[in-house]
Design goal:
Elements lengths: L18 E10 L6 E11 L4 E5 L6 H8 L8 E9 L2 E2 L5 H7 L4 E4 L3 H4 L6 H13 L3 H14 L5 H4 L9 H13 L5 E5 L7 H18 L2 E6 L2 H4 L5 E6 L2 E7 H6 L4 H8 L50 E2 L9 E2 L9 H4 L3 H5 L1
Length: 355
């Protein structure tokens, strides 16, 4: 990747927001059957910053990213709020203007590379098309640059791979190819939607290391979407925890891991295996499923699954407010009865459970 003109270093998270999402709401369906998948979500991403959107499947993470990219079907759906990128609201752009932005300024790495790549088009043509469309390169120059990109993301023998079809590559190579395509035009913002879900742990670690290296090298801002707090542990500067379509906790990474305040965040952390604990440490999954939610209008959506539930949780909707009791600055919390200690410190061992 080449440095942008006049830029030599990329301080993480400094300056005015590159992306500013305000009250983003996505509603599927109409009338009595309408379902609000994303409910008034607001967050910022600054130049060079990596921001995490974390939560279980169904909490609204991927829908948020698709709404930002304007990739949701318009029929039967409603998207409200604002998504300002470099001062321009992406939700108000025409389809043509958004297509010019997408891939050039804002790019996305999708969860399933096999379904994201065209199965009947050689890999080289798919990567080169991005450069031809947004950089105006001819086919020869775009092909050579495509080979350089594949080499950059760690695909061996890139010239030969350009002639192959997606099904001829391993899952890790396909994901690397998607990263090459996303970074081809050096976008200012990259959205990664669970890019390591279908990969084994070794390849997963390599992909995360690759993303971290490329983002730091190019100064690209990154939104990392995942259900696994372990994925963001060494990657994100700031973490937004989503539940039921709303942000329930926001904190800097180290502060969040040191002292989670929302019971849902604590449950996600308690379900992560830790090698340092050795044998005998029992994992504590979050009880129930996202189907057990209650509407936010009637209280806290997480109340039916919460170990810290009190009476008010089912009577009044908690607001997202500054958490003055939490560790670290700029923390936000949506909870009537937040955690006072890290649940990892209180998790029982197998011996304690048997006793």
């Amino acid at each position: 990747m080449t440095d942008r003109p006049g830029t030599s270093t990329y301080p993480s998270g400094e300056g005015e927001p590159l992306l500013s999402v305000r009250d983003l709401t996505v509603t599927f369906g109409r009338g009595a059957k309408a379902f609000r998948a994303v409910d008034a979500v607001s967050f910022d991403v600054r130049p060079g910053q990596t921001v995490g959107l974390v939560g279980e499947s169904g909490c609204g993470k991927s829908v948020t990213s698709l709404a930002i990219m304007r990739l949701l079907p318009s029929r039967g759906n409603a998207v409200t709020g604002s998504v300002h990128f470099d001062g321009e609201d992406l939700l108000t752009l025409s389809d043509t203007q958004m297509r010019d932005r997408r891939g050039r300024d804002v790019a996305m790495i999708f969860q399933d590379p096999l379904s994201s790549l065209n199965p009947v088009v050689p890999l080289g043509i798919q990567v080169a098309e991005v450069l031809e469309r947004h950089r105006g390169m001819n086919r020869g120059d775009a092909g050579r640059r495509a080979a350089e990109l594949l080499d950059k993301v760690g695909i061996p023998d890139p010239t030969r791979r350009l002639k192959e079809y997606p099904h001829q590559l391993s899952g890790g190579m396909r994901q690397r190819a998607l990263i090459a395509m996303a970074l081809a035009c050096e976008p200012r913002l990259l959205i990664a939607d669970e890019p390591t879900t279908a990969l084994d742990v070794t390849i997963q670690a390599q992909i995360l290391a690759l993303l971290k290296e490329l983002v730091q090298e190019s100064g690209t801002s990154l939104i990392m979407i995942t259900h696994d707090l372990g994925v963001v542990a060494g990657l994100c500067d700031e973490v937004n925890v989503l539940y039921g379509g709303r942000i329930v906790e926001r904190a800097r990474r180290h502060d969040l891991f040191a002292r989670p305040r929302h019971p849902y965040t604590g449950g996600l952390l308690a379900s992560i295996p830790r090698l340092t604990e050795g044998k005998g440490r029992r994992l504590t999954p979050v009880p129930g499923s996202v189907a057990d939610n209650i509407p936010w209008e009637g209280g806290c959506a997480f109340a039916p699954r919460c170990s810290s539930e009190i009476e008010v949780c089912r009577e009044r909707t908690p607001e997202l407010v500054p958490d003055h009791e939490g560790l670290g600055p700029d923390r936000l919390l949506r909870c009537h009865n937040p955690l006072e200690s890290n649940p990892l410190d209180d998790a029982p061992s197998d011996e304690e459970v048997r006793a």
